[in-house]
Write a structure and sequence with these properties.
Elements lengths: L1 H5 L1 H27 L2 H7 L5 H7 L13 H5 L8 H18 L7 H4 L2 H4 L5 H7 L10 H11 L50 E4 L6 E7 L8 E4 L5 H10 L42 H15 L3 E2 L3 H8 L68 E10 L2 E7 L7 H4 L3 E2 L25 E2 L3 E3 L1 H7 L2
Parallel strand pairs: 5-8
Antiparallel strand pairs: 1-2, 2-3, 3-9, 4-9, 5-6, 6-7
Length: 462
Amino acid sequence: MIRLKKYRFLLLILSGFLFSFLITISLKGVDNYTSTDKYCISCHVHTHADHSWRQASHHNNKSGTVVHCVDCHLPPKNDLTYWPEKISAASRDLYSFWFKNHEQINWEQKSTIGHARQHIFNISCIECHENLFPLHLSKKGDEAHLYYKHNRNKLDCINCHLDVGHGGENIHMANVRFLQSKENTVIFNSATLITGFNNFTEHVPGTSISFDMVAIPQSDSTQAFFMGKTEVSWNEYKAFLSTTESEGRISNNTSDVDVISGATPPFGDPSQGWGMGKRPAITMTWHAANMYCKWLSQKTGKTYRLPSKKEWMYACNPNGTEDFFFGGKVANYKPKRFPLSLFQKSNTKINEYVIWLENSNKKTALPNQVKPNHFGLLHMLGNVKEFCSDEIQINGKTEHILMGGSFNSKPKDLLTDDYTRHDEWMITDPQIPKSIWWYSDCTDVGFRVICENPDKLNKSHE
């Protein structure tokens, strides 16, 4: 007993060492078991996750090297953040596996860059790809990686390499085919003649494109004008892109209608894979939207332009005593969260008129998915933020007003004017100089057009 007391401190140290050793061995075993691809896939019930991974370049490549789930979705094991991130991911994934309805999970949304960048770690990418300038890299690749090197704090590897983990096409490359024209089955030879201040359907000469314009009567603060019933659709915008296709890139904006220059090819798919057709055209810059208006004016012989903020707000036609034109205050449409949602349901009337954060599935919608406002205009709130002609100075730089909110907006943001963030929305674009046509990092902006009313303008000049 005396001897035990004499060596008590040594025994305590040995016991602690043995306990730590056993814990370490156990943790290592648990870590190894839960780091296998088989284990990850058993929890992640996304039906094509395994298949798309096997088709992607991180599995199916010339070197035969397989990049495993944890190699991308966790920090390197020698990093201090490895275990905290692993515990966090495990807690989140297990909760989702046991308590969420897997059939209601929007897998398409979870495949977007915005979601993916939350689950990919740059340090993991660099762990494998230490040399950013290998001999086989193309000149454009060198420029892109040099741009990344100087902007590490702003960029994620996943911005350009979204497809490497789970298949898909190489999205971050010039999409020349996007600008190529398709054969038209019906060609309009002349634009629509305005015979009075009534709604009309515009025909774009030399194309098969037509769209509806709504007559907005004069107010105390605005002249009468016509406004597009919907945002400019991909059908309409693609006609502009196809007929003005250009190989070059101009560096200075111009207001001369006679020198309209076509857009350069975008990187990847500007429609984000959501479909085109009658969906609103998105990701174009304010300059590109204005060039479309100039082109449309030239084609039709009318004066098309972006609305002013004042005109836009009047056309949106808010209900004087309430926040929304369809009735109700912002507070009426705030989603009710647990546990309040058990006792009080959210007002769903907003879903009849607006595509917003709670009903959009994180993408744009077609015109027929909502009801019109009092003037007959669709999607004045939500769907996409709409460019206005008004300028605003932010930190010494000229930006432009946006109105209406988007599919990403909460109720209060639908009614708040916003503004462009040109430099922030061009971070991923590696081109030198950067494109003046396409935002590389903004997917919820678009625009609708105004056509000036010739009768009203003529009277104002008499």
